[in-house]
């Protein structure tokens, strides 16, 4: 079977969420303030929950997929999604660890988190427009809403720090 299918994209999405979890856990360790630690732990747990969602969705799509060609995506779409995944703040190329090492203030960490949420929304919206499975669509719609909520929370937190 040629081309990229939904399962490979679900693996990519899971990897991005795992990197988000690592980032927020590391960020929590960089600050002494208990409220800040709790906030980053909360964000890490949200990312961990998304990892589980993608694992479960992967299993369900894999069971339905078989070797069906209908789950293949257009090459341009796949390359676009791969580019987003490879260059996102939370990616599997090791850049997340580098980013967290450069965090010196809570504001820095929040700005990185805000950009990561934007990256995730862009990835999930494009994936949503191109998926052919209803279960993937439903999950992506829910995750997009959660990521938008996180983006808003980051905005409020950054304003409160000023």
TrEMBL record:
InterPro entries (alphabetical)? Ferritin-like, Ferritin-like_SF, Rr_diiron-bd_dom
> What Gene Ontology terms describe what this protein does at the molecular function level?
metal ion binding; oxidoreductase activity
Superkingdom is Bacteria
Residue ranges of the Rubrerythrin diiron-binding domain?
Answer: 8-157
Which Pfam families does the UniProt entry name for this protein?
Rubrerythrin
Name of the protein in question:
Rubrerythrin diiron-binding domain-containing protein
| Organism whose genome encodes this protein | Geosporobacter ferrireducens
